[in-house]
Amino acid sequence: MRVCNFSAGPGCLPLPVLEKIRNEMVEHEDHGMSVMEMSHRTQMFYDIFYPAQDLLKKIMNIPDNYKILFLTGGATTQNSMIPMNLMKNKKADYVNTGVWSEKSIKEAKRFGDIKVVASSEDRMYNYIPTLDASTFRPDADYFHITTNNTIYGTRYTQLPNTGNVPLVADMSSNIMSETGPLMDVQNFGLIYAGAQKNIGPSGVTVVIVREDLIGNALPFTPDMMDYSVHVKANYIYNTPPTFAIYVVKLCLEWLQEQGGIAGIEKVNNYKAGILYDFLDNSKLFIPSAEKESRSLMNITCTLSTKDLEAKFIKEAGENGFVNLKGYKTVGGLRISMYNAQPAENVEKLVEFMKKFELQNK
Amino acid sequence: MRVCNFSAGPGCLPLPVLEKIRNEMVEHEDHGMSVMEMSHRTQMFYDIFYPAQDLLKKIMNIPDNYKILFLTGGATTQNSMIPMNLMKNKKADYVNTGVWSEKSIKEAKRFGDIKVVASSEDRMYNYIPTLDASTFRPDADYFHITTNNTIYGTRYTQLPNTGNVPLVADMSSNIMSETGPLMDVQNFGLIYAGAQKNIGPSGVTVVIVREDLIGNALPFTPDMMDYSVHVKANYIYNTPPTFAIYVVKLCLEWLQEQGGIAGIEKVNNYKAGILYDFLDNSKLFIPSAEKESRSLMNITCTLSTKDLEAKFIKEAGENGFVNLKGYKTVGGLRISMYNAQPAENVEKLVEFMKKFELQNK
User: Fold this and answer.
1) SS3 sequence of B68-118
2) Are the Cβ atoms of A21 and B19 closer than 8 angstroms?
3) Number of Cβ within a 10 Å radius of residue B213
């Protein structure tokens, strides 16, 4: 029996996608082979790769002057690729909203003058700092934010106005989760996201980059780290992670069937809504993030004691609710509900939490 | 019906592996989830990752003083990672045996003094140059070779004696294909291989590196490009390509069932033997590589005219033999038969080639 999997990433995938993968595992369509056995230089693979790109473009309404890359190495690799490609004046500004921001900052510092212009470290990263035009340096090459912070359960609820400075966003954990300006590609110079939370499986990283930002890589940049090399090679410079890209395509098709981002946003608001409602009315569970910075994807909370948290996690596990433990440095609980998380799983979890509260008050 | 797939990479996979993946796609063992949905920080994934590492160690008889990494970015990424990590004196020697060597050389040149000490470019890369101790510089940081050249169908049949200079090998296309000193890990400082030919699917790259070569990365090396960072993180620094590593594990289990490298070597010699025998006796098909440098994995040949080659490829395709076309810059035919290629497919192909010769003489 399938469990209710609240993993922060890799996250659960839509069951119909898994079933489709299973059904065409040994022979894909009429090709007489698995997707994993296809040469990446054949039409049968192009029929997976380029439609996946087109579908992402359509779902996210990506303007024509942006390039869509399917790379490897995760968001962590982008932490160095971005400065190597975008920092032509060796100056960039970063906002620190937690562990992933810190990693981005650490890597960027190898390549130039990095200023941390705002931080929420003072309150354990449980909020997003207020940013305005005066926050960042107007001559910076770019301005970097992490739109959703899995560990602390926070997300940006408004974008800074960066004028002519390109806004760069690590959107790994909430890409394609809501409509509006927060996710409107034209507000960004570059968006990147490891696929394993809201796009598909691990092993592929999506980069959406405005074309005027491509072509200025630092002199020692390896070919694999240079966006322009990938673009010039029709997006397939070396052997890509073919199977992971195929799964991305299936997940995007599934998302489209849910009504695209507008459709899934309703589900996401519903799922987060019932859980936050419960937490706000609970006397046992204490939500961690400040209200105005709450994530729709990762909901964090604590109980009054470590023992009670351990008891909850144990009993939840016995009832088929898994991966609820908070990040190692933070503790508490973390409930991740990316696009593929069925609303039914969240409803069941809330019921279970209510019962647990009754039994443990 | 499954075709006979002679792709040069990604290559075909063992059918029992594909069937096992299919059978446990929706629920892996008793975990109630797919492998793709597992958090990489859980025991259930460690039970895939570390046994895969152990199995590779066992099959290749890797000594204890070597580290085994599952990375991403393909062999192409290693072309820059190797100099960034190993070139502490900024001096390395390379042998040019074709396109992949050229790519390795091009990347390495960004980081130091690279000398191409031998090349087979003079005869269209159809042989491996003779190398001895005087070939390379004794104060080089390493000496780089490409053990098998997919495009030209050549392979090293003896290793140079490099003394104290570590030998670094791109073994992407013939790793684990034969026994003897050519594949004996202790003869190398570092071995790397994209998985999609002889290990598993695309999306994961194996690096086997002697531990004394780790820890000297150039100052600007990104964390993701630094071998020591991966080792210190117990080999899982960021989210790895979880599913690709799972498939690698299944392929290694399959290889072990074939009797390991000694077992598969017999099959590889048989497959290459019947095809080379046919080519050596054919008046229509002309083998491309020189006899003493012949690959067991990729067999290249030409026919007397381009028209005849096109006719062969077309008719072969109609009969279920696919991906036989030579590399774009070389032309002719290329028949790839990695470990997972069933002997039966090669037998059928030879029969088909014989028939074609009879009909077209």
Assistant:
1) EEEECCHHHHHHHHHHHHHCCCCEEEEEECCHHHHHHHHHHCCCCEEEEEE
2) no
3) 20
CA atoms within 13 A on the CB side of A119: 14
As a whole number of angstroms, the distance between CA A21 and CA B123 comes to 46
Residue whose C-alpha is closest to residue A61's, from A226, A256, A240: A256
With contacts defined as CB-CB under 8 Å, which chain A residues touch B222?
A: 77, 79-80, 107, 110
Q: CA–CA separation, B43 vs B52, rounded Å?
A: 14
Catalytic, out of B93, B141, B170, B226: B170
- The counts of H helices and E strands in chain B are 9, 14
In Å, how far are B10, B95, B148 from A190, measured between CA atoms?
A: 31, 39, 39
What six digits make up the tokens of B127? 């042989």
- Provide the whole-model pTM: 0.98
pLDDT computed for residue B361 by the predictor: 83
**Contacts B194 to A, Cβ<8 Å:** 239
A13: nearest CB among B36, B224, B237: B36
| Residues A299, A276, A321, A176, CA torsion sign | negative
Does B121 contact A at CB distance below 8 Å? no
Tell which A residues from 40 to 59 touch B, by Cβ distance under 8 Å. 40, 42
Interval A230-242: pLDDT, tens: 999 999 999 999 9
Half-sphere exposure of B322 (CA within 13 A, CB side): 19
